[in-house]
């Protein structure tokens, strides 16, 4: 069903942080900080908690809805599901959830949602006014829940979905950052030794007046080179990272090639592949179980894969499904999805059990990602010792070789 959102319905009111001093129950003095639109709003809010405000003043500037992460939306969805399921009216639930957040940007966002709902806007349209924070799946589920009178169930389903997706994201990030951290740590320690430690030995070596061993001479040469180039190299590295980030955001072709290269990496590529398939299957299963048409569900699932290669493949499959092709055939035509995934979806379509089969696919690949990340972590632990041992130990040994040689001569 087509919906029209009108962002001009409710003019956003600025939120401020207020510091107050008051008298609580049993005449106890109490101080605190609250976030709200105006002084009177804070006083009313605190009076409901049996706190009589004696002094209140504004602290800091306005708060926007920036800096909100998917994990914040996940918590919001879970709390709203709990509130609505308990029978608390939607507007009251929004106000209660807003108070539970310590993050000012989330409080600002939820307060704006509450203002829009209070003005007569549906919860679906209120969410639609903030597409940068609430994806199409969230909006589709809330719309279906409002229409069918099952809002709490839909919010709960969305919370479960987001919890699983965020858990999968965390595992993939762990797989990507773990080896990167090892390499950065190793090179950082090596650079520190070459720039700060080796020069201390160099003057002592010159006083020996003898030819240095080949390994020591190599380390001394590397130290001289590092002292001259470490700052320019660091600047080039930072500029390269910034350029890559800007290109990835501004050029879809570059982002596609970057994700394509990531999928081809040994070990890491396999984890990213499985994670993309798991997120695709989990999203499509959630949308299909909620009554969202398959074509719309594929459109939502495309953006949830987290990889441009799979996103393009899902959008291509969506076009084929829209023309009447079966889902498994459309997926096979992309030459992107694993054969096992295509076969399982084919069986699900033939048996009329597509949603359970999609859930099984998601669970299977999520478990595969778990196992792969655990295996990578176990493999990297001894590699850390080996890499750091070779880099640091090699430099230390090379520095003491001339001393050992001098002791032999004596």
UniProtKB/TrEMBL annotation:
It is a multi-pass membrane protein. GO terms for biological process: protein secretion by the type II secretion system. Residues 76-199, 280-402 form the Type II secretion system protein GspF domain. GO terms for cellular component: plasma membrane. The chain crosses the membrane at residues 176-195, 229-248, 383-403. Pfam families: T2SSF (PF00482). It is found in: Cell inner membrane. It comes from the Bacteria. Keywords: Cell inner membrane, Cell membrane, Membrane, Transmembrane, Transmembrane helix, Transport. PANTHER family: GENERAL SECRETION PATHWAY PROTEIN, PROTEIN TRANSPORT PROTEIN HOFC HOMOLOG. Belongs to the GSP F family. This is Type II secretion system F family protein. The lineage of its organism: Bacteria, Pseudomonadati, Pseudomonadota, Gammaproteobacteria, Oceanospirillales.
């Amino acid at each position: 069903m087509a919906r029209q959102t009108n962002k001009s319905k409710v003019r956003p009111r600025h939120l401020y942080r207020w510091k107050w001093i008051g008298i609580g129950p049993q005449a106890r003095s109490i101080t605190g900080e609250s976030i709200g639109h105006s002084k009177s709003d804070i006083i009313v809010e605190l009076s409901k908690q049996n706190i009589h405000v004696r002094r209140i003043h504004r602290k800091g500037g306005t708060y926007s809805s920036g800096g909100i992460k998917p994990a914040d939306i996940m918590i919001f969805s879970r709390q709203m599901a709990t509130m609505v399921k308990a029978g608390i009216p939607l507007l009251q639930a929004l106000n209660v959830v807003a108070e539970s957040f310590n993050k000012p940007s989330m409080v600002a966002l939820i307060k704006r949602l509450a203002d829009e709902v209070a003005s007569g806007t549906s919860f679906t349209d209120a969410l639609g006014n903030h597409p940068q924070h609430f994806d199409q799946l969230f909006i589709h589920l809330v719309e279906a829940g409002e229409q069918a009178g099952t809002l709490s169930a839909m919010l709960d389903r969305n919370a479960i979905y987001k919890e699983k997706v965020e858990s999968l994201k965390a595992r993939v990030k762990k797989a990507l950052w773990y080896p990167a951290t090892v390499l950065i740590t190793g090179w950082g320690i090596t650079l520190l030794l070459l720039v700060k430690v080796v020069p201390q030995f160099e003057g002592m070596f010159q006083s020996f007046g003898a030819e240095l061993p080949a390994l020591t001479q190599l380390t001394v040469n590397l130290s001289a080179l590092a002292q001259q180039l470490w700052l320019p190299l660091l600047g080039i590295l930072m500029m390269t990272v910034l350029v890559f980030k800007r290109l990835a955001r501004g050029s879809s072709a570059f982002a596609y090639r970057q994700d394509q290269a990531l999928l081809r990496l040994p070990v890491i590529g396999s984890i990213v592949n499985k994670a993309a398939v798991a997120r695709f299957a989990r999203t499509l299963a959630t949308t299909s179980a909620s009554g969202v048409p398959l074509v719309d569900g594929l459109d939502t699932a495309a953006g949830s894969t987290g990889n441009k290669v799979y996103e393009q493949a899902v959008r291509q499959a969506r076009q084929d499904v829209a023309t009447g092709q079966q889902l498994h055939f459309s997926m096979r035509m992309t030459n992107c999805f694993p054969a096992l995934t295509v076969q399982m979806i084919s069986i699900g379509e033939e048996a009329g059990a597509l949603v359970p089969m999609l859930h099984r696919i998601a669970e299977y690949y999520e478990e595969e990602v778990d196992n792969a990340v655990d295996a990578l972590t176990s493999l990297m632990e001894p590699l850390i010792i080996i890499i750091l041992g070779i880099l640091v130990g090699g430099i230390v040994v090379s520095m003491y070789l001339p001393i050992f040689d001098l002791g032999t001569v004596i």
